[in-house]
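In the current project phase, our protein records have gained a structure token line. A sample record follows, to show the layout:
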Amino acid sequence: MLIKRKDAQVQKTRLQSVLGDLSSGVLDRRAFLRRAGFTAGAAGLAAVSLGAVRRAEAEAIDPKLPVKQVKNICTHCSVGCTVIAEVQNDVWVRQEPAFDSPINRGSHCAKGASVRELVKGTRRLRSPMKLVDGQWQKLNWATAIDEIGAKLLDIREKSGPDSVFWLGSAKFSNEGSYLYRKFAALWGTNTVDHQARICHSTTVAGVANTWGYGAMTNSYNDIRRSKTMVIMGGNPAEAHPVSLQHLLIAKEVNRANMVVIDPRFTRTAAHATDYIRIRPGTDIPIIWGILWHVFQNKWEDTEFIAQRVFGMDDVRKEVAKWTPDEVERVTGVPGEQLKRVADMMAHQKPATLIWCMGATQKTVGTANVRAYCILLLATGNVGQFGAGANIFRGHCNVQGATDLGLDVTSLPLYYGLAEGAWKHWARVWEIDYAWLLSRFDSKAMMEAPGIPSTRWFDAVTFPKDQVAQRDNVRAMVVFGHGGNTVTRMPEMVKGLEKLDLLVVADPHPTTFAAVSNRRNGTYLLPICTQFETSGSRTASNRSLQWGAQVVKPIWESKDDYEAMYLLAERLGFADKLCKNIKVDGKHPSPEDILREINRGGWSTGYTGQSPERLKAHMENQASFDIVTLRAGDGPVKGDYYGLPWPCWGTPELKHPGTHTLYNTNLHVKDGGGTFRARFGVEYKGATLLAEGSYSLGSEIKDGYPEFTLGVLKKLGWDGDLTAAERATIEAIGGNAPDGVSWSTDLSGGIQRVCIAHGVMPYGNGKARANAWNLPDPVPVHREPIYSPRPDLVAKYPTLPDFKAFRLANIGATVQKSAVDRGIAKQFPIVLTSGRLVEYEGGGEETRSNPWLAELQQEMFVEVNTADAAARGIADGAWVWVTGAESGSKAKVKALVTDRVGPGVAFMPFHFAGWFQGVDQRDKYPKGADPYVLGESVNTLTTYGYDPVTYMQEAKVTLCQIAKA
């Protein structure tokens, strides 16, 4: 264990600080837990984790060989736990707990404790392969890249650049995510996406359209300071296990309320002080029901609203409709039960709202998120420690991959797709804008959002005239993404079978390679795990951590960087892809890629986190406080752990990062801030700038717009720019003072001057309770497409049919048809889905891990005891679950339990390898099939897409269950 260091001059580790001087006496387990700061409830979590980290049987190694300890980041959820690998003779021999990490403090969940098995696992792809007449054949990398490149160029020539779908991954590092988005831009398409589309795209849209940035406002650790925690649509105990220690500390040490609102009595709910069971799909009525009591009792924070919020009166009008009686009629929750929650949010502060995919994966996902944010605004629970929107994202780098532009609507760092955004990145890349434009079918396509991952198969199978681009999608290149993660899988399989080319680049074959009846035109490229390469990853709380390479890629695998470079080389633009990035042989330098991100990422504050600063944080983890995440000593003193964005200015400015967004109680140079002024200065005559509110130390004592060179000149601050900074600004904007802003100034001068005067580069605006640019400016309840309550559809219908993202959304037509055909009577059980602690995402990686596969071996459906009794279903029996579309069905085991209420069923979403009762193990390459197979719940999920992001409806559909 890491209880000592050889260098006496090195600071104490966190474990040493906890244990003190062991020689002074015996330290039993109870004393250790007490001195480590755990209470009874939190102790079990960390204690079990510590015991699970190392194997019982040590491997035989030569004790004379030197041991090297290497730090990397867990590859699973977004908490960001540090993993310490012990390496001897270039072999990962042991895994140590990272006691110094302020995030996981030496603990791991089951997945984190078993990550070494991912590297040495025997179920990985070992060499490139292709499918020939239904048989997998081995080939070398050179041949694979040459054949794939030739096919892609032929398809591009005949059907255009948009005919290839580039599906990226939240498993990428930040540098890999950025490189893949740049790759797609050089190819000439915006049809590039990743897991965020199907997990938190609605979070990003909802939060960003409320107060500026689409991310968690605080941090996991900061929850320790909360007095009220409301968890809605999330199950941290299983989805983010290590995060639960922070919640339990708040509950047990801080005496915080812990309210869980969920259709299912989860393992998180077992820890709650209050549990509220709701009907799936009724989040907005619940939030408005809480807010009804806030307004009725005048509990809102009137000063906060007056100074920092726009449009709250419009919300009041909608909320007034949601009386306790109407809330109960729609949700099943007695309206008065919500009064207690309202009281907590208003009076037992700071209060935080925590959510995950139970909130986001809905046709009203963006509106749900907006309602959550509005509740926080009304009660003044934003922009302070212990409060805020604590959004628990899924994969280890889904936040970073989102930030770096793996999205059909934006270039890296949320610059969008307008001409100005392309010209900004053309300057960063030192590529001629006209050449970039020439790569696209047209300027209109260059600035149009691509096809999202939730609908890729529709773009393959729909008639050509129903896809708003030159031709259908004909090819798909997939890096690190499961095929079982989209809804409507029977339709997805049809799309797979129609593709001319499918390329899967992954450590495992994934469901993409095995679920369909494809016989030719499929290639598998073995990509190594993140432990066999290096790079940074951004946790849910916006902090970046650098993971060092533990071992070299095993077998014939390559990392993402090299695979992308080889493909770019074959396609003819590797020179532009890495024009200012060092390439060692065929391997781009991740450090250099991050430096290029730093040169261009001004809009989000991704400019201050140089590789050198991030590596220093990993080397000095013990310096960071567990609660505040700020370093109190050492070479990183004053920094927040991981330099959470925005980290303003150049690395030389040494901004500490921003732990808590929009916190006016801190100076900007210490991580303080205001709401963004990104929506203009007024709307219909009402100001959109803050009134009488400003961050500590600001030289402007009121609201103000975004900063441009012109604004600096009006204030007389332009004289603070250096000659070099001014030259860069003038080279970009010429003689137009407002032509260069804080987000396009490549010198960093505008940001530097703003920080010096205590103001935010992005302005000081109001958060929006009324977001006039969205389909529902104030969130309204809309019944799910497949509603169990057809009697409510007339009053609360989904939005009318419309077109977006190059495809039609016919949700209204489908909903009307379902009501007319009496689908709710034929399929009377609401089906929802979620996570298990043993597995992650689509499950290909974790079901191929023998440690985890042993823990959870069968796919199942949770059925309420009353529903099971009515159908004669016994616990553990095989059942058929049939879906409401496409004649879909799945054969699974029944888990009879009252965790789900009557009329509701739950299935985990980690399984694949069976399809509608058929075992498909023989379709995998020999030896690369996961240990555990099972039906995918997404065989049963149905049509439904959020109007803002095309997020899929994965949490509410209808089904029937019968004995098999």
About this structure: Residues 141-159 form the longest helix (19 residues). The radius of gyration is 27 Å.
